[in-house]
Amino acid sequence: MNSIQKHAQLIKSTAAQLGFDFCGIAKADFLEEEVPRLEEWLNRNYHGQMAYLANHFDKRLDPTKLVPGAKTVVSLIYNYFPEKKLPEKAEDIKLAKYAYGQDYHFVIKDKLKTFLEILREEIGEIEGRVFVDSAPVMERQWAQKSGIGWVGKNSLLLNREMGSFFFLAELIIDLEATPDIPLAKDYCGTCTACIDACPTDAIVQPGVVDGSRCISYLTIELKDAIPNEFQGKMKNWTFGCDICQDVCPWNRFSRPHQEPAFDLHPDLKEFTNKDWIEMTEETFRKVFKKSAVKRAGFPKLKTTLSFFKNEGSS
Q1: How many of the other CB atoms lie within 10 Å of CB of 232?
Q2: pLDDT (tens digit, 9 = 90+) per residue, 236-253?
């Protein structure tokens, strides 16, 4: 076994040791095939008010602009599917499952820092950076390139053994390692469950989402009031949305995560619609102190809940 193969083996074993479910390796090349797709997506304003997605165009496509001398992109999957779900009947106010516990950015980034430390202890000086949905990295494209999944019709990464209820994370490093074979096949076939189920018609074509119509965008990223055209279409999702994942046949393979930090906050277990609507800022700060929900903020949450009230929720 040569050194490049040994590096790949070390990367895979370290990923397993740290609790990642899948690990794939890709050569840190320029993503030339993504250039026209990204340009068209931005030109159609599918990013809405997420102006940051139009920034650093070159960095999104070229990992060596994020890490000079980068040779390898390591893509990782970390499960967040809950053992017990909050009520999700039509009348229930709902919370995306990824936000049940602590903010994944911090939980996973800590693991990635440990990952890099282990590699450095075993191999020596390595230049690299860690990413968890926090920089201009086209994570789904890199994950597909590394063989750990394919981009589904809802634009999310799908994995045949796990579905899609997981976080993606990356290490971009200047260490050479044997790359995995990209996943060329699309296992969605003729299924259109996600497209058919999206109440705001955000999935405009297979694999392309108009972000400005997505419920996750409307409840988190949108700074203005939710447009009236979405009245009656929000399905009471107060932060994020899981509709396109819940209907995906591949998610029948989802299994409960093993990460205590992602367990449901105790106070949320008994939350009723009344609790959501009458929530004070003090309660918000207590319940969502370490949560990704903090990103939206209390005023945004109250605005979204008011929108539901106008729809007739109670």
Answers
A1: 11
A2: 999 999 999 999 999 999
Ligand-binding annotation for 188, yes or no, is yes
Which pTM was predicted?
Answer: 0.94
Which residue among the candidates 29, 133, 186, 246 is catalytic per the annotation? 133
Q: Is 191 annotated as a binding residue?
A: yes
159's tokens: 């994995």
Strands 72-79 and 166-173: antiparallel
Q: Is 21 one of the catalytic residues? A: no
Under 8 Å between Cβ of 50 and 107? no
Chain segment 280-298, per-residue pLDDT in tens: 999 999 999 999 999 899 9
Q: Residue 168, annotated ligand binder? A: yes
- Strand (E) positions, the chain? 22-27, 72-79, 94-95, 128-131, 150-151, 157-158, 166-173, 203-205, 208-209, 237-239
Report H helices in 136-242.
Answer: 139-145, 193-197, 215-216
| Contact predicate 93/238, CB 8 Å | yes
